[in-house]
Amino acid sequence: MCDVVGVSFTVGPACREFAVYDRAHPRGGGRLRPGGRLGLARLTLLDLGGGFAGDAARPRPLHGASAFTLATQVTSVRRRSDAVDYYVNDGVYGAFNCVLYDHQVCRPRPLQDDAPPSGPPATIWGPTCDSMDQLCEGQLLPPLQPGHWLVWDNMGAYTLSAAGTFNGFPRASVCCVITAPLSEAVRAAVGPLSPMPEPAIQPTQLPAEQCVAEN
What we know:
By secondary structure, this protein is of the alpha/beta class. Helices cover 17% and strands 18% of the residues.
């Protein structure tokens, strides 16, 4: 038997009307008070549910969003007198599906951030040439060229897990990174790491021409 300590609610990620949150809030609707009448202990926990940003949300996006940072490379640039368009190698059919499905607002920062923002507002587009493949607009960025990188923080929740390969564009690769201070803290907590055992079956390296012929 488990103890009931609270309640949760969600209005969904598409909600943009503040009054809906007020009506759904368990305390505002009197839904935290009946606990005593039902023989339950005092309810002390309120799970905010969905519809909030990753830093104030239900456990999955709360812990998952900040765990991943997405890096996209600029593939082409279109400049106009009053605006600039940057095309990158991931879009709404890939890791940025959160823009379509969860109405997430994604904002980039340049990897080479030593130059101050200048020039007209920028619109960032995905790679598919689809008019829906727009990641964000009105961004103030330093002048970028093909090959430059844009970094997107808090991209761990509801992003890569639902990514597809529309128009043949591959899903983003995942690289595990840890800072030196955190690495030392982990080693101090768990002790020396044992080497990974050798796999029971060793992979066989095929000649390149054989790989092409078989594929």
